[in-house]
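Exam revision sheet. Question 4 asks you to relate a sequence to its structure. Input first:
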Amino acid sequence: MKLAVAPPHICIYRGEYLQGTMVFFEEIEEAIRQRSPIRVDFSQCQSINAAAAVMTFAKITRYQLIADFVGMAKGHQSLEITMPLDKKVRAFFRSTGFHDAVRPGGKAKLNRLWRDEGNPFKTSNSAVPDLPALIKHLKNRLGNVPDRLMSALSEGYLNINHHAYERDLIEDLFGRWWQYTSSVRANGTFSVVLYDCGIGIPKSLEHKLAREVVWYTDNQVIEYAMQKGSTRFGDHHGRGNGFHNIKKPVDINKQAKHLFIASGRGAVVYKDQKIDTSEMHPNYGFGGTLIEWCFDGEIK
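Answer key, structure tokens:
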């Protein structure tokens, strides 16, 4: 049995935590590739942030779906979880719904999560999921939903379904996205995170970029897509304004903090209607595309 040991701080925002977090994710990915049983050990975990929680949720449930599909001896039970030793962290895992999201289970577990209005971890491979249920879930979590956030999420679901994945996938994974909505924290901040395990924005735009740019890094591709206003939809798909829609909740809400996008090996922060920071991580890939809308203060 393989072992994936979570670092003390599972975090993709801060450079000092990024390496340990990415190594942890890669250990789960390796078990998927090798079809090997694995124990995911959170015993030393002290904290996990929103974006990293969604990625962890995705890595684990992806393993579980594949284990059932390929007929591993114990199916999704081939992945075992060791909970944090710290009682407060263990209680946090349970109170946030994270434990229910990553505990042993297959499609039935994911269906239960979808129906559970109180659990902020959601996943689906539908391009047009049950939007009234999602809106109700967001209202339960946030009270008031930021203007244009639902349109931005819908754009994300469609984009993932049309362009994030190559076709050589099992049916349950093709077009799949994972989502987390934080509760409003004591300081008034909250975030909504959407993630896919697809090919990433840089790879999906590489042919288009090759015609226009001689040399580029993954973060520059993300910047290009954001500034051009198009995501992975081509001009002939009728949805060339994808990134305009994705940026809109941050552009029009006074309480918006920033938009964080990580894809391929690049990460970009957008705020105040411009690129704020842009980084290339040559040693680590995000395994798809992550979009996080962050807000600071109560939405009126």
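Marking note for examiners. The chain has two domains: 1-116, 118-300.
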